[in-house]
């Protein structure tokens, strides 16, 4: 599994791959395949967030929960879907907020957020795989141990990162983050179930750029390229 990981992350996380929970996770994923279940994303994309945003490049972390569980949706970046796939409701709401938050933002015709990841936005899901058409099916199998370690390592070894935590699940991860060294931006989740309860109007994207500029860093270009 570690063979697919970007060298900087592998250096930071190599100890995790020898721990008992990771061995159990590998066995679980193999059992899923042996039972004939399709799992997403495809193996080559499981660590896409890490391979697109090396640790030294991370400026912002947007934490999601599960990969999308529909066919061809998930490709290893939280909230992002592959080109050619209709953006899911949460992502459409993210685009709506961007329209009012970032002057000149135009809603793209796709949901691939790779451009953000290449600018230092780590699009991290807490669980990195899922069974087809079954939300939450790979939770509590070991992935959270791994991604909690990712958050803690970033918190311990970096300074000035911005963590965007949408919804109660993501906000529970705040305990892993040293708020003396890092910034946390919170709101309700962009899901249609909650977006009108405080996500719309929360302006997370302009807040990120204001912090980055104050710290002398390049802001994120939130416009998603065609």
Strand content: 5-15%
| Spatial extent as radius of gyration | 17 Å
Indicate the multimeric state: single chain
End-to-end gap: 33 Å
**How many strands, what sense, and barrel or not for the largest sheet?**
4 strands, parallel
Uncertain residue ranges? none
**In order across it, which strands form the biggest sheet?**
3-2-5-6
How much helicity do the residues have? 25-40%
The whole-number mean of residue pLDDT values reads 96
Shape: globular
Number of beta-strand segments: 6
Output the number of helix runs. 8
Element order, helices and strands? HHEHEHHEEHEHEH
Structural class: alpha/beta
Task: Please describe what this structure looks like.
- This protein has 226 residues and is an alpha/beta fold.
- The protein contains eight helices and six strands.
- The radius of gyration is 17 Å and the shape is globular.
- The chain has a four-stranded parallel beta sheet with strand order 3-2-5-6.
- The protein has helices at residues 7-13, 20-34, 48-52, 89-101, 114-117, 143-157, 167-171, 204-214, and strands at residues 39-40, 60-64, 121-125, 130-131, 162-166, 183-187.
């Amino acid at each position: 599994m570690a063979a697919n990981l970007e060298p900087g992350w592998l250096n930071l996380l190599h100890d995790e791959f020898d721990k008992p929970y990771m061995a159990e996770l590998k066995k679980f994923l193999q059992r899923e395949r042996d039972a004939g279940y399709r799992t997403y994303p495809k193996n080559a994309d499981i660590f896409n967030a890490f391979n697109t945003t090396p640790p030294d490049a991370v400026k912002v972390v947007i934490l999601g929960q599960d990969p999308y569980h529909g066919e061809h949706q998930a490709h290893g970046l939280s909230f992002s879907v592959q080109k050619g796939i209709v953006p899911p409701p949460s992502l459409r709401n993210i685009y709506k907020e961007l329209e009012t938050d970032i002057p000149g933002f135009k809603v793209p015709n796709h949901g691939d957020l790779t451009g953000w990841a290449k600018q230092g936005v780590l699009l991290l899901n807490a669980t990195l795989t899922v069974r087809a058409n079954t939300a939450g099916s790979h939770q509590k199998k070991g992935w959270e141990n791994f991604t909690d370690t990712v958050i803690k390592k970033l918190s311990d070894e970096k300074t000035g990162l911005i963590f965007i935590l949408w919804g109660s699940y993501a906000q529970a991860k705040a305990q892993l983050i040293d708020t003396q060294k890092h910034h946390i931006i919170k709101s309700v989740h962009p899901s249609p179930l909650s977006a009108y309860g405080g996500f719309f109007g929360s302006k997370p994207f302009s807040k990120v750029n204001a912090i980055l500029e104050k710290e002398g860093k390049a802001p994120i270009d939130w416009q998603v390229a065609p």
